Amino acid sequence: MKRLRILFLLAILLYACKEKTETTRAKLGTLVESVYASVEVEPYDYYQVYAKSNGVIEELLVDEGDSVEKNDIIAVLSLNQSKLQVEDAGLQLTLAKENYQGEQAILANIEQELALNQEQERLDSLNYERQLNLWNQSIGSKTEVEALQLKYQSSRTKSTLLKQQYEQKEKELATMYKQSLNALAKAEDKLSDMFIRSNMDGIVYAINKNVGELLNMQEPIASIGKADCFIVKLSVDEVDIRKIELGQKTIVRLDAYPEEVFELSINKISPTKDAKTQTFVVEADFEDAPEKLFVGLSGEANIVIREENQVIWVPKEYLFDQNKLQTNNGEIEVELGLQNMNQVQIVSGIDTQTVLIKP
User: Fold this and answer.
1) CA 256, CA 295: separation in Å to the nearest integer?
2) What pTM was computed for the model?
3) Domain 35-45+224-307: which topology?
């Protein structure tokens, strides 16, 4: 009795296993080889706005959804310190300019002293030459000649020193004047950096900060992009990126439009892998975009690599050991062709009459 019960249970198990065995036949039709990619929608020329200087936000002049033109002011940071720096730099420039070019400039004083000394040098030279001529005629004394010669040499030496002093002071004052000009320009640039501007005509899609908050140069204050003009960014695995080419047709499904399929065309392939996602970014244009699109919409895409008609294909799940199929006559090795996520082309090894058993 016990033996019969065991045989009965085995029969049930064998029948159940037989019932669960799935079979199919290869099909003849169109097969599309494609590459899968995740999708995110962005406006054209979408970028994040960063400040060029740290500071507290004093004013926000736009709201999300506002239209802006290039160079429009988006926000204003605290200005007090920058204004003081501009004022101080202006005062320093005024002083440097007065010292270098003013009527009471240091150079004018040296120049006046040099002119007086050069006149004295001329007189000392004449007196020395006159006395020397008299001495050559045995008139006067040698002591008088030597005294006048010493006086002339002294005035000539002083003229030389004053010339050197003038040239050195002129270079010094010119340098200080130029440095003051540069300091004022830098202060004005820093003041200008307190005004955060748009780099383009477009729409403000996001404002990330509020008035009174501290903003640093590593934090975006806003996001701006083209109005009503969107692209799709696709993240492609590095295994597949070599298959992607410009102009390839791309089929996209967006989560926001689950019942619709959109056709796009590849227009840009990034040459650099994204360090965060470890994927390559590919951009595509809509052939016919939906009426409403929003920043950040997501979905999935299949980039069409090749398309063949009248080919034999089987579901990919029937393959095992890469290129084998299970039939009623045992395992068969087949030659593969095109393939996508779900289907694979059979170039040779079976036909559409072969019964395949799911492994």
Assistant:
1) 12
2) 0.61
3) Elongation Factor Tu (Ef-tu); domain 3 (2.40.30)
